[in-house]
Each structure stands twice: as C-alpha cells, then as structure tokens.
Amino acid sequence: MQKITPYLWFDKxxxxxxxxxxxxxxxxxxxxITTLHDMPSEDCDVVSFELSGQTTFCQxxxx
Length: 63
Description:
A 4-stranded mixed beta sheet has the order 1-4-3-2. The chain has 1 helix and 4 strands; from the N terminus they run βαβββ. Helices cover 17% and strands 51% of the residues. The radius of gyration is 12 Å and the shape is globular. By secondary structure, it is α+β, with helices and mostly antiparallel strands.
C-alpha cells in the first residue's frame, strides 16, 4: 500500500506550528528546517517533522 505524507501550508510561522504539533504527540521530532531565500513571496520555510512516526511537512511562504 502506498504511504501518504501530509503537507501543511501556512502563510507564516511553519516552524512554530511544527513545534506546537510536536508538543502534542509522543515520540515526535523536527527532522529538518530549510529556509529558501529570495522567493517571489519573500523567504520560505520548509519544515519536515515526525508525529508519532508519521513523516509530515509544512511550509510558510511569507514571513
């Protein structure tokens, strides 16, 4: 069976959202935070994290 990876889109504060979700679920961690600079809508944060073993991504487009 194919595995689905959730992808959450935020206007801003993706890092804060990932930290919040990690505080709610046991065995969770932030895997990686990447900031893409000089994007058309300013800087862009991409955060990958695990919630109880489920890989999840979130992205913020304007900061």
